[in-house]
Amino acid sequence: MNLENLITEKRNKDTFGLDKMSVSEAVTLMNQEDKKVAQAVEKVLPQVENVISATIEAFNKGGRLIYLGAGTSGRLGVLDAAECVPTFGVSPEMVIGLIAGGERAMTIAVEGAEDDLELGKRDLIHLALTKDDMVIGIAASGRTPYVIGALDYAREIGANTGTISCNFNAEISQHANLPIEVDCGAEFLTGSTRLKAGTAQKLILNMISTISMIGIGKVYNNLMVDVKATNEKLVERSKRIIMQATECDYETATLKFSEAQENVKLAIVMILTQTDKKTAEQKLISAKGFVKDTL
């Protein structure tokens, strides 16, 4: 394994003497390095857009979005997938995060899992991957065997594939239809890709999941109208969203939220179209879930 040419493994000349810096000096320097991440992501927005378009297409065909990676990259994919459930009201099966080594690897490194070329393939077979699914491999280094094996299998059965890596000419890019390669420069702490590389991956994952959900009607204006009210805070947020979308008062929002069986989007359509629950449901079905198209 030759790591010397990987951007993510190079030493950062600006952070030499890190262990001799004061806390103030270190946090200032780290903040300066972090500022470079958004600028690096900006350079790959056309590639991100292509992945989002493919993901929306997969959703419209009834397919799933599947992230997979190892270590920090895998954890970020699992996190993004998990947060789609309450934010957009989707089932846990619609957006899935796989990490080399399974759930245990979320907190404890599983020795050898990321180097297993067959493990990624087996994980996708276990999910009964289909050609309608979108598979995105995440690897800061761009060379993780677990990811490569999975991508090769996905392409073999006809599923669309994308990647997110933090090195140019990444090996995983050769195994996907839609690669994203973002260069954030050498890490603040040499080789610690949970830092700038991880931040870049999180920013890109935020874009992919959020904008793909917008593309299938999960957002009205800039409101998360498919939010699931799974706790007291989200119940109150749901009512506030109804108020913001319809300009109704709190009492009306509370009443319609209850009548809609805590379905925010449905309550909004009931108010804006002045219809009952059944009629509003039919309107949403006809509009394929887009509030704007029911009006």
Automatic annotation (TrEMBL):
It comes from Lactococcus protaetiae. The active site is at E83 (proton donor), E114. SUPFAM superfamilies: SIS domain. Specifically catalyzes the cleavage of the D-lactyl ether substituent of MurNAc 6-phosphate, producing GlcNAc 6-phosphate and D-lactate. It comes from the Bacteria. The keyword Lyase applies. GO terms for molecular function: carbohydrate derivative binding; carbon-oxygen lyase activity; ether hydrolase activity. Pathway: Cell wall biogenesis; Amino-sugar metabolism; N-acetylmuramate degradation; Amino-sugar metabolism; 1,6-anhydro-N-acetylmuramate degradation. InterPro entries: Etherase_MurQ (IPR005488), Glucokinase_regulatory_CS (IPR005486), MURQ/GCKR (IPR040190), SIS_dom (IPR001347), SIS_dom_sf (IPR046348). Pfam families: GKRP_SIS_N. Homodimer. Coiled coil: none annotated. The keyword Lyase applies. Keywords: Carbohydrate metabolism, Lyase. It is an enzyme of class 4 (lyase). It catalyses: N-acetyl-D-muramate 6-phosphate + H2O = N-acetyl-D-glucosamine 6-phosphate + (R)-lactate. This is N-acetylmuramic acid 6-phosphate etherase. Gene3D superfamilies: 1.10.8.1080, Glucose-6-phosphate isomerase like protein, domain 1. Belongs to the GCKR-like family. MurNAc-6-P etherase subfamily. Its EC number is 4.2.1.126.
